[in-house]
Amino acid sequence: MFDLKYIRAHPDRIREAIRAKRENADLDRILALDAQRRAHLVEVEQLKAERNRASQEIGQRKAAGEDAAAAIAEMKQVSERIKALDARVREVDEQLGCLLAWVPNVPHPSVPEGDESANQLVRRWGEVREGEELRDHLTLGEELGILDFGAASRLSGHGWATFVGLGARLQRALIDFMIDRHVAAGYREVRIPYAVREESLFGCGQLPKLREDMYAITDEDLFLIPTAEVPLTNFYREEELQLEDLPLQLVAYSPCWRREAGSYGKETRGLMRLHQFDKVEMVKLVTPESSYDELESLTRDAEGVLQALELPYRVMLLATGDLSFAAAKCYDIELWAPGEGRWLEVSSCSNFEAFQARRCNLRYRDEARKLRHVHSLNGSGVALPRLTIALLEHHQTRSGSVRIPEPLRPYLGGIAELTPAAEG
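^ thats the sequence. predicted structure below, dont judge the formating
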């Protein structure tokens, strides 16, 4: 979120960000209200000076035994005008607050211009499986006895999943494997609440834009989290950090809830798009000078999970039109799912610069003891549904079993293979 001083000084940059991100923020209205507000404040100061002059004049006339009625009447009119202007400034401030909440972050200069088709391939890792008759994850899940969509549908309807037996154990193993890996890399594990207040979602830029995708807890100012990014980023909100505290690296597992209200017509088959799913999330709070190096490091941390699981992937630099509302730059990491025959996004690694920090009031003292906003970053490390799709489809064998990569086996009690006959 940008303050009015910055917007006033860089209107063209903000206007271009709104256009490039395909947002609908009303910059002209913001600038007009800002001009009104400043004009009102100037008039208020002038009137207060006039009121002070009138007060002195009244005192002098009373001391001299003169009639001060005219000056008193004048001062009363001035006071009424000041009161009206103060009320108008409050109204304008409220309008500006609503409008400013819809102004997106400015893309970094390295971000390509355009829609999803302008996303740029950064690198690829691993060999994809193509040209084979391969089962998809739905077929494999049924044959292995690890997925039960019928039970999920009876319980909750469409868009939910149930893992059973070794399927449930596999999810738990993947979570523990990823958490252990990130903790070993220097992240601090946090067990977080799965419901947060509205201001936490606003702080991350999820609200007001994505309200229709949120699961609200009725009669309470709480929402089920769409990602652990929200409580992790807000963990230090309103606190004053010290330079020696940075970088802060946090990691958490959480279930995530999304209504997917805007997903009509999109692929929702199987585990592709769920209302509730599991995810391991990484968040960094860093100095502005280091944030783009930290973005590269964060992305490598997410990639390391996929390399350890021997899953081919690619890293894409998102174009302006595919960039989220709050991000300045983002890499999507996509796994190849051979049974689906396409790439599936499993992690978005983003630098928000100071955008979220301004909304959360996340600040630190630099070497000169000056208060500055931190830069915040986050990335999935990684999301489980599409990771599970790729793991099952890529590591399937001709016999119908699924090979378990070696680093994951200790988390499954040494199991090296899921077979159709296996029982959890």
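DSSP finds twelve helices and 16 strands in the chain.
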